[in-house]
């Protein structure tokens, strides 16, 4: 708990400096997806991360039965993708979650991968972490993916979240999905306790955002498309990088197939430009359980082209998200960081093997 308090204090000081200083504000079956015997085509680059500090549960945390595994009802489930380009971000995200959790031993991580040898990196960095690695076959979505405004948005692993209900064990009824380019600076258990009610997903919504820009004129001019989308709801933008997902309801309704159908429409009619987000919006926008904006201070990576520096949104902060093209580890390494990148740096455990 002492280490958690120290990290929280450090974050608060850094955040106060940045905010107060004007100069710094600028359907395939699950078996096919889970296949563990598939061979990877390339040899991975070599990485090394410093070992994370060992953290224990507070006295008031629920007891964890070691033998119960992933099905323990006391666990908080978090899903994150792992790939070589964003591995440094994923490791920092995990580190931040553990540092600020009152019950770090009660968090179970589900890592989605399409590349080899990443499990060993996680295990050496977090020796006592509760986690499992799931292989996501890129071929499942490769023929469904369309070109986007940024090539990074076309990577098949971006679409793995659409298949979480198939990938994860049936006993996992709920999961928090997080992107790799963020840090959590609050207790993840608070987000876990989000009440979804009758909704399948929960996320911070932004109803003042210009929703029309996420789809092409061809979409809005077609009554066939606009009538089929949103189910008569009033849609609001939400960022899919932070979601609480009811996997039990997802499986029952079959939302993976619904998303795939819109991706098929996109291949023939070009109804959007922005990667994996629009089909998610088409299925869920206007039908999302609201979560406080503090849980996704997004856009810190700037836009999808220039990646310019951005400020925090007004209000409290529980999660900082470098969505956009600018990533803090790249900017820090190039010695051209944005002011808010200094808040990410304390959670970075990366170092090259020599």
Automatic annotation (TrEMBL):
Q: What is this protein called?
A: Hexosyltransferase
Among Gene3D superfamilies, the record links this protein to: Spore Coat Polysaccharide Biosynthesis Protein SpsA, Chain A
The family classification in the record reads: Belongs to the glycosyltransferase 8 family.
Q: Where is the signal peptide?
A: 1-26
- In the UniProt record, does the keyword Glycosyltransferase occur? yes
Q: Which UniProt keywords apply?
A: Cell wall biogenesis/degradation, Glycoprotein, Glycosyltransferase, Membrane, Signal, Signal-anchor, Transferase, Transmembrane, Transmembrane helix
The entry's localization annotation reads: Endomembrane system
GO cellular component terms attached to this protein's record: Golgi apparatus
Report the EC code(s) recorded for this entry.
2.4.1.-
Any GO BP: cell wall organization
Membrane topology recorded in Swiss-Prot or TrEMBL: Single-pass type II membrane protein
- Pathway it acts in? Glycan metabolism; pectin biosynthesis
Top-level class of the enzyme under EC nomenclature? transferase
A GO MF annotation of the entry reads: glycosyltransferase activity
Organism whose genome encodes this protein:
Brassica carinata (Ethiopian mustard)
